[in-house]
# Entry
Amino acid sequence: MTAARTWSAGPEPGEEHTPEPWPRGISRQPTMRISDVLAALGTEFGHVSHSKLRFLEEQGLIHPVRTPSGYRQYSPADVERLRFVLAEQRDSYLPLKVIKERLAAMDAGEEPAPVPVPRLAGTGADRAAEPSRRRWTVASVAQATDVDAAFVRSLVTSGLLHESAGGQLDAAAPDVVRTAARLAEHGIEPRHLRPLRTAADRNVDLVDQVVAPYRRQQTGPGRGQAASLAEELGELLARLHTVWVRHGVDELG
# Structure
């Protein structure tokens, strides 16, 4: 297990100076709890979890401070490193080993590093407004997406949106509604999209079969590895679907 670091204001007199790790110019003071980190990342990476953060720590990608009582404390710089790791997994499909090598090269100044956007110090009000944290209903999604509530209800009836017994839709509902509304402008109705939803559910079942052995370990690292692997496989399946659709559309011309 990776040993957690302890907070230090800087090198002691006489110590050899080492380059500041990336990201530079962002506070390294550990003032954030794990719940604060999840709130900061939740909008962009809605599926990030406690176990995922602990798994990334086990892999040596982040090194949160441990308080005397054993709690993890993160800095804004830690959050920016996490954002980089999660984005590289999602957008470039890179394995963690390669991402870790890239971070090491950025730390050493051997690879050009992105300039972080100053967005880490969100307020409680900011976090309360995050779409991924809201409780969506047919009415609230219709209002947020500026579409008729009857259209949102038709997506539920067609099985494109899942509605709980309490009337709550999942966090992806606004994205589904916006995309379906754009398609409807071209005559593609909700009933035409049902096979896409069925295929997506089958892909989720396939991913579940692969990650189930890790999830059954009932340990922090095991659950974290399951979450990371599920995310990677999901992105790969989505990418494959996109490649096939784009290729088929190109052939139409």
Remarks:
- Strands lie at 65-66, 72-73.
- The longest helix spans residues 220-252.
